[in-house]
Write a structure and sequence with these properties.
InterPro entries: BlueCu_1, BlueCu_1_BS, Cu-binding_ET, Cu_oxidase_CS, Cupredoxin. By secondary structure, the protein is of the alpha+beta class. The protein is built from 2 helices and 10 strands; from the N terminus they run αβββββαβββββ. A 5-stranded mixed sheet has the order 2-10-9-5-6, with no helix packed on it. Strands 1-3-8 form a 3-stranded mixed sheet, with no helix packed on it. A two-stranded antiparallel ribbon has the order 4-7. Bound molecules: copper (II) ion (CU).
Protein backbone atom coordinates (compact mmCIF):
# COMPACT_ATOMS: atom_id res chain seq x y z
CA UNK A 1 0.00 0.00 0.00
CA UNK A 2 2.77 2.38 0.90
CA UNK A 3 4.58 1.55 -2.33
CA UNK A 4 1.38 2.13 -4.31
CA UNK A 5 0.98 5.61 -2.81
CA UNK A 6 4.56 6.40 -3.62
CA UNK A 7 4.08 5.27 -7.21
CA UNK A 8 0.94 7.37 -7.58
CA UNK A 9 2.73 10.44 -6.27
CA UNK A 10 5.58 9.75 -8.66
CA UNK A 11 3.22 9.48 -11.65
CA UNK A 12 1.50 12.75 -10.79
CA UNK A 13 4.88 14.39 -10.49
CA UNK A 14 5.98 12.96 -13.82
CA UNK A 15 2.81 14.08 -15.59
CA UNK A 16 3.23 17.59 -14.17
CA UNK A 17 6.85 17.80 -15.27
CA UNK A 18 6.00 16.45 -18.73
CA UNK A 19 3.19 18.89 -19.37
CA UNK A 20 5.35 21.79 -18.25
CA UNK A 21 8.20 20.79 -20.53
CA UNK A 22 6.11 20.32 -23.69
CA UNK A 23 5.27 23.78 -25.03
CA UNK A 24 1.70 23.99 -26.23
CA UNK A 25 0.12 21.58 -23.79
CA UNK A 26 -0.06 23.90 -20.82
CA UNK A 27 -0.70 27.05 -22.86
CA UNK A 28 -2.74 25.82 -25.83
CA UNK A 29 -5.61 28.08 -24.84
CA UNK A 30 -3.52 31.23 -24.62
CA UNK A 31 -2.93 33.43 -27.65
CA UNK A 32 0.65 34.39 -28.39
CA UNK A 33 0.89 38.13 -27.81
CA UNK A 34 3.09 40.14 -30.15
CA UNK A 35 3.76 43.79 -29.33
CA UNK A 36 4.81 46.01 -32.20
CA UNK A 37 5.46 49.75 -32.39
CA UNK A 38 4.97 51.81 -35.52
CA UNK A 39 7.43 54.68 -35.88
CA UNK A 40 7.75 58.02 -37.68
CA UNK A 41 10.49 56.35 -39.76
CA UNK A 42 7.75 54.16 -41.30
CA UNK A 43 8.96 50.99 -39.67
CA UNK A 44 7.46 48.23 -37.56
CA UNK A 45 9.78 47.59 -34.60
CA UNK A 46 9.11 43.89 -35.11
CA UNK A 47 9.49 42.62 -38.67
CA UNK A 48 9.46 38.88 -38.03
CA UNK A 49 6.82 36.82 -36.26
CA UNK A 50 6.82 33.04 -36.15
CA UNK A 51 3.79 30.87 -35.43
CA UNK A 52 2.71 27.28 -35.54
CA UNK A 53 -0.04 26.39 -38.04
CA UNK A 54 -3.38 27.45 -36.60
CA UNK A 55 -1.83 29.15 -33.58
CA UNK A 56 -3.82 31.97 -32.06
CA UNK A 57 -1.95 35.29 -32.16
CA UNK A 58 -2.76 38.68 -30.70
CA UNK A 59 -0.99 41.63 -32.27
CA UNK A 60 -0.84 44.86 -30.29
CA UNK A 61 0.29 47.76 -32.43
CA UNK A 62 1.21 51.08 -30.84
CA UNK A 63 1.94 54.19 -32.88
CA UNK A 64 4.78 56.23 -31.48
CA UNK A 65 4.43 59.73 -32.85
CA UNK A 66 3.78 63.35 -31.91
CA UNK A 67 2.30 64.06 -35.33
CA UNK A 68 -1.47 64.38 -35.85
CA UNK A 69 -3.23 61.13 -36.88
CA UNK A 70 -4.02 62.56 -40.32
CA UNK A 71 -0.27 62.82 -40.98
CA UNK A 72 0.96 59.72 -39.15
CA UNK A 73 -1.11 56.66 -38.36
CA UNK A 74 -0.34 52.98 -38.71
CA UNK A 75 -2.22 49.73 -39.04
CA UNK A 76 -1.28 46.05 -39.20
CA UNK A 77 -2.68 44.12 -42.12
CA UNK A 78 -1.76 40.48 -42.71
CA UNK A 79 -2.09 39.24 -46.28
CA UNK A 80 -2.60 35.85 -47.85
CA UNK A 81 0.38 34.66 -49.89
CA UNK A 82 -1.56 34.92 -53.14
CA UNK A 83 -1.87 38.71 -53.31
CA UNK A 84 0.54 41.44 -54.41
CA UNK A 85 1.21 43.64 -51.36
CA UNK A 86 2.21 46.62 -53.52
CA UNK A 87 -1.19 46.57 -55.24
CA UNK A 88 -3.04 46.26 -51.93
CA UNK A 89 -1.12 49.23 -50.53
CA UNK A 90 -1.63 51.40 -53.61
CA UNK A 91 -5.35 50.68 -53.88
CA UNK A 92 -5.94 51.00 -50.15
CA UNK A 93 -4.45 54.51 -50.08
CA UNK A 94 -7.66 55.69 -51.81
CA UNK A 95 -9.94 54.44 -49.04
CA UNK A 96 -9.42 56.79 -46.13
CA UNK A 97 -13.08 56.33 -45.08
CA UNK A 98 -12.52 52.55 -44.80
CA UNK A 99 -9.44 52.63 -42.54
CA UNK A 100 -7.30 52.72 -45.70
CA UNK A 101 -8.37 49.26 -46.77
CA UNK A 102 -9.53 48.66 -50.33
CA UNK A 103 -12.76 46.61 -50.11
CA UNK A 104 -11.79 44.57 -53.19
CA UNK A 105 -8.95 42.97 -51.22
CA UNK A 106 -10.89 42.08 -48.10
CA UNK A 107 -10.87 38.39 -49.09
CA UNK A 108 -7.07 38.48 -49.25
CA UNK A 109 -6.66 39.91 -45.77
CA UNK A 110 -6.19 37.34 -43.01
CA UNK A 111 -6.45 39.93 -40.24
CA UNK A 112 -6.08 43.64 -39.68
CA UNK A 113 -6.29 46.30 -37.02
CA UNK A 114 -7.84 49.73 -37.29
CA UNK A 115 -5.56 52.73 -37.79
CA UNK A 116 -3.74 53.94 -34.69
CA UNK A 117 -2.72 57.58 -34.34
CA UNK A 118 0.17 58.73 -32.13
CA UNK A 119 -0.05 57.22 -28.63
CA UNK A 120 -2.85 54.85 -29.57
CA UNK A 121 -2.75 51.05 -29.42
CA UNK A 122 -4.88 48.81 -31.62
CA UNK A 123 -5.25 45.07 -31.21
CA UNK A 124 -6.29 42.15 -33.35
CA UNK A 125 -6.50 38.44 -32.52
CA UNK A 126 -6.42 35.91 -35.31
CA UNK A 127 -5.55 32.33 -36.14
CA UNK A 128 -2.34 31.75 -38.08
CA UNK A 129 -2.82 30.00 -41.43
CA UNK A 130 -2.65 26.19 -41.43
CA UNK A 131 -0.42 26.25 -44.50
CA UNK A 132 3.27 26.67 -43.59
CA UNK A 133 4.99 29.55 -45.38
CA UNK A 134 5.69 33.27 -45.28
CA UNK A 135 2.89 35.79 -45.00
CA UNK A 136 3.54 39.50 -45.42
CA UNK A 137 2.11 42.11 -43.09
CA UNK A 138 1.99 45.74 -44.07
CA UNK A 139 0.78 49.19 -43.05
CA UNK A 140 -1.67 50.67 -45.57
CA UNK A 141 -1.42 54.32 -44.55
CA UNK A 142 -0.56 56.09 -47.83
CA UNK A 143 3.13 55.74 -48.69
CA UNK A 144 4.07 53.65 -45.68
CA UNK A 145 4.40 50.25 -47.37
CA UNK A 146 6.59 51.70 -50.11
CA UNK A 147 8.55 53.43 -47.35
CA UNK A 148 9.35 50.00 -45.92
CA UNK A 149 6.59 49.46 -43.41
CA UNK A 150 6.28 45.68 -43.62
CA UNK A 151 7.16 42.43 -41.94
CA UNK A 152 6.80 38.67 -42.32
CA UNK A 153 4.80 36.11 -40.40
CA UNK A 154 6.46 32.73 -40.83
CA UNK A 155 4.22 29.73 -40.21
CA UNK A 156 6.12 26.54 -39.51
CA UNK A 157 5.64 23.29 -37.61
CU1 LIG B 1 2.22 53.15 -41.16
Amino acid sequence: MYLFKQLTTLSILLITVLSLSIPGIATAQDAKVVEIKGTDQLKFTKTEITAAPGQEITVKLTTVSKLPPSAMSHNFLLLTSSVDATKVAQESAKFQDNQYIAPKYEDQIIAHTDMAGGGETVTVTFTAPEEPGDYEYICTFPGHYLGGMKGTLTVKE
